[in-house]
Amino acid sequence: MCQVLGLKSDSIPRIATPFGGGLGHSGLVCGAISGACMAIGLVRGRRSADDPRDPAYDAAQKLVDLFVEEMKSPLCPELTGFDLRTPESIKQFQQSGVRDRVCAPAIVLAARLAVDMLKGD
Questions:
Q1: Cα–Cα distance between 7 and 1 in angstroms, integer?
Q2: pLDDT digits 0-9 by tens, 14-71
């Protein structure tokens, strides 16, 4: 995302690190959606408290809707079939190939959707 949008910051990969597993293996929203929304915020987000939120909110909502339309869920456990809150399930997940079959395509989809929305900015 950073390369495509021309954004440079050493902080970005660090900020996004806990997104995996539905936010730190909590089983919430897919980290690919979180990362794509972070990119939307970097481009369309407020620069001050008085700026409108709608440009970022509208793009994020559209991204989530399109993601769910294709992937059928925004939630990590529903996408992967794993509850990643235990070491045992993380190990099973890592050995299952789900990361390649589900997570990688989800990341590509979320990034593509965000870039498509933002490339005109």
A1: 8
A2: 888 899 899 999 999 999 999 999 999 989 999 999 999 999 999 999 999 999 999 9
Better-predicted residue by pLDDT, 10 or 73: 73
Alpha carbons 6 and 86: distance in angstroms, whole number:
38
- Distance, CA of 78 to CA of 117 (rounded, Å): 26
Residue linked to tokens 């996004």: 16
Asked if 44 and 118 count as a contact pair (C-beta separation under 8 A), the reply is yes
Mean pLDDT calculated for residue range 76-99: 95
CA distance 100 to 121: 31
Which one-letter amino acid corresponds to residue 97?
G
- Cβ neighbour number for residue 88 with a 10 Å cutoff: 9
Which amino acid, residue 15?
A: I
Are residues 2 and 8 in contact, defined by beta-carbon separation less than 8 angstroms? yes
Concatenate the DSSP letters of all residues of 13-63 into one string.
Answer: HHHHGGGHHHHTTSS-B-HHHHHHHHHHHHHHS-SSTTS-SHHHHHHHHHH
